Amino acid sequence: MQRRLWLLSAWLGLAAPALAQELTLRTVQQSGSLVKYAPDAGQHRPGLCLEMLRAVQRVDPGLRFSGLDRQMPLRRVERLLSEGQVDVVFCLLKSPEREKQWRYAAVPLYSIRHVVAQRAGDERDFETLAELAASSHHKPVLVMRGTALARRLMEADVAIAQVASEREALQMLMLGRADAVYGQDINLQRHVGDAGLASKVRFGRTIFHEESQFVALRADLPPAHEERLTHALRRLERDGTLRLLAEKYR
Predict the structure, then answer these.
(1) Where does the UniProt annotation place the signal sequence (predicted)?
(2) pTM value?
(3) Are strands 102-104 and 209-218 parallel, antiparallel or unpaired?
(4) What are the pLDDT digits (tens) for 149-161?
């Protein structure tokens, strides 16, 4: 028993300096997604991904993130990651194309559902992507530019018009320029609420797809750095922090 305690003490003595050692990972904020990053919204709701990043820093104070003063559109974020100019990006979806360019931490951050938003008076329900594709030949479906969701619709032969933000998409929907907005439930719900459109917009019954957001890692990030970040994320998963933060933004 004494030998076991000595070995445990020795292991902790070796592990503690490793965890205490400072490590700075380069990152960037994604612009145009208020659910993820909302630097002007105040401390109460600064963005789900920013809060998750800060939670990682709380459980591992030696782990730092630089570059949070920079905001970039999604395509620029993707390019920086694929070129190795940033080390990590919080909250990106997986896709075969993306997984060829970078890796992902093993712990899912939160899940999103693909849904359709329509004008309140539009009683049609699209139950499949095939039905959405048929309707899109009259008016294209609005979707965020350059996203995995846009690529998914194109693969299903849905005619789309790509826009810069959910806010712009909802404005076009209200003007009758489109009949459907395809997006992430958590994002669309936020923008509908912020714009006071709860009585003018309805969400279809169908969940077309459900998937998780992850921390993306540059392809050649050292394994030790990935392990340290993953260790912090697992602690947040186990104690319920990731779940509580996701619920806060729904």
Answers:
(1) 1-20
(2) 0.79
(3) antiparallel
(4) 999 999 999 999 9
